[in-house]
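Technical appendix A lists one of the benchmark inputs used to test multi-chain prediction within the project. The record comprises two sequence entries:
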Amino acid sequence: MADAGAARTSAAGAGGAEGGAHAGGYDPMAAKMGMWLFLFTEVLLFGALFIVYGVYLHGFTWQFRQGSARLSIPVGAVNTAILLTSSLTMALAIAALRRARQVRALRLLFATVGCAGAFLAIKAFEWAGKFTHGVYPGAGFLLEQTKGEIIFFGLYFTMTGLHALHVLVGIPLILWGASRARTGAVNPERCVFLENAGLYWHLVDLVWIYLFPLFYLIS
Amino acid sequence: MDVAAGAAAPDYLRAGRGLASWLTTTDHKRIGILYLVAILVFFLFAVCLGLMIRLELFSPGEQFVGNQGYNRILTLHGITMIFLFIIPSVPAVFGNFFLPIQIGANDVSFPRLNLASWYFYIGGGLFALGSVILGGVDTGWTFYIPYSSDTADNVYLPILAAFILGWSSILTGLNFIVTVHRLRVASMPWFRMPLFVWALYATSWIQILATPVVGITLLLILLERLLGIGIFDPAKGGDPVLYQHLFWIYSHPAVYIMVLPAMGVVSEIVPVFCRKTIFGYNFIAISSLAIAGIGSLVWGHHMFTSGMADLERIVFSLLTFLVAIPSGVKVFNWLATMYKGSIRLGTPFLYALAFIFLFSVGGFTGLLQGALSTDIHIHDTSFIVAHFHYTMFGGGGVMFLGALHYWFPKMFGRMYHEGAALVAFTLFFVGFNCLYFPLFLAGLAGMPRRYADYLPEYLVYHRTSTVGSWIMVAGIALMIANLLRAFFKGRKAEQNPWGGATLEWTVPSPPPAHQFASPPVVTRGPYEYGREHASG
């Protein structure tokens, strides 16, 4: 069979053509591949929570709708708009940097960070409002509600909390990218660092795009 | 790359001096050695815990650790063996060391990330050991709800340990996948890669795709304990069985993380010691991927008695039978490789044979559990304990030791005493069967697993088993002593002591820090012996 494998050389030549890069050298393809694999793990991290959500939505459909009614759609919608805007500014920043427009890229990156900060601030006010109304895990008020609502808010705080944590990690990451863009370590020829930060940021955005309807729009 | 690298360059062991040069290294070979040392320490620690379990079971009644102490030792034995030994063993040590060499590269794609994953590993290990200092945990390594949500023991540390170790495992897998894609020499197409690389490649995908699920599940336990979010608490509408689903979605694929790299090692050793091209290269390569794929869909068979719809149980049972097929493909291919081969019974080959035997016993007894009716009878008995020790220890563990004997001369440039290695192997193999086989019989007779005590009827099984544990540990002790002696004063090993045809045997033993001054040109398959001058 190995003979067959040897005979296959030309057919599989495309696979071999990938090779030839040097260990430790600058290989943007490898860096991007690594980032995509990391994003797979992120998708599965959230994916498990989405499965849990699906299971309980199936079991407690009506109570989930009641729980959802306690969330403010305008607040969620504003946050969605903010995150979508931040994804746009991130993409524009990378496009600007690729065309060597450094100042413009930096401004767009700071806009992205500003959006991230605004998102977190709104989220904090939203959570604080829930806390004052006794809607948080273990609160006496919440424990008097239906089981479905307890689970709904258990998942709400877990999933939006994990998402907010990712936004929080994104801020220093983008700032780091901005500082490297300023010093020229990230430049039109070597911009994979910023591209990867962008990939991460788009994933954070994408997760929210699923969280928003699943929690806010099912009432 | 350094053009002068070659005979004159110092080998990787002597390329830097002092502890600091080791702790800050990004050389994949040195990182492999760092893993080897750490993993061996944790392995021997867990072996001692296993010995204590067997000593407690020497006679009926309470011996010396008590019920609660027994639960804690059992848990720590499981956590250490699973998360700190078997999961990282072959990939982190031999994968790190040999995967780049076997594909003609000088390092992995992300050397610093590689070192970081070792620090994650050590951090996770310290968390696990820290839980011992704080009194231990009694939940079992599976952290089943409600044990883990309600126990008074400090369950935070071991759960964080498992979480951190999971990330270590993910980063290693990520590194390997990118390395195989990006750093393989141009003259090595996919179907000329050594089968060890194929096995690691498949394993890495499971590590990446399955580990995050258990990571988040463990975090949910922490949130349950800290905040009472209720997701697994029936009083708040949660479902404890959902925990089992999430846990096994990872942890069943994880058993293939443990055994696939071991199968890769067998696929390396068998053709080398039979002087024969591997039979069915393509089938072995693809079966690794098939095991990774189907193995991700069989988790429900851990829960046949936990409460599940009949249709679900039938589907999971069917998938469980299916996953035995690619495993069987490998076994038949190894045996067919031996047929009419020119067999040399070297120590590594004996370990490969032991793997095939022990893993087959473990595999066949697994089918008894995959069948719904028999599973009801043997579920939660010591039959299960025997089964997974035959597959995990007889599979992953044995081939870790086999790989150590196979690649030792390459890694350290010295040869161990083959006679002593043979005696150690014999003691190990006899002790292994004496230790675990009686547990099959005890389980069929109704002996429950995880119990610190038993009825006098089971005395003969338990006593045989405990005696077996002494024989096996004697074998392990002799093996370690033999390898340590070889490391310090073994005779010098030549470059290619076994006559292998894969790339690691074309570099000096031990390899220089940069093993390839220029990318090697691969002109033939990895197992084409006697065709050294033929060009592909």
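Chain A touches chain B through 56 residues (CB under 8 Å). Residues 27-216 of chain A form a domain with the Four Helix Bundle (Hemerythrin (Met), subunit A) fold (CATH 1.20.120.80). Comparable benchmark entries are summarised in Table A2.
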